[in-house]
Amino acid sequence: MTVQSADKTVSRKQRLQEKQRRQLAVVDTVDKAEIKVRKAETELAVAVAEAVQVFGDEQAASEGLDMAVGTIRHFLAMAETEVAGGDRTAGDDRTAGDDKSAEDASAVGEA
Fold it and tell me: Residue 37's closest CA among 111, 93, 110?
């Protein structure tokens, strides 16, 4: 009877380890996706800033890009932050400020 109990424990342990491995793989995938989203947002912010320069002002860019002025300003602030933070090292992508980027992304969706 003890042997059967030990077999069940090992089997349960293996199932739990496999479940944990899958959960960690999902977390890793989400982390990588978030990094890609932040990079894309930054690239979009830079493109919007360039568009504002081309159009001459925020209102003209808003009309030309079919984007709300508030959204334009949000991306301009992101681009400004990116330029100011350009001195960071390449390996310093994950900072405490990354949580703010996620908040900014949700704010853009609401704009």
Answer: 93
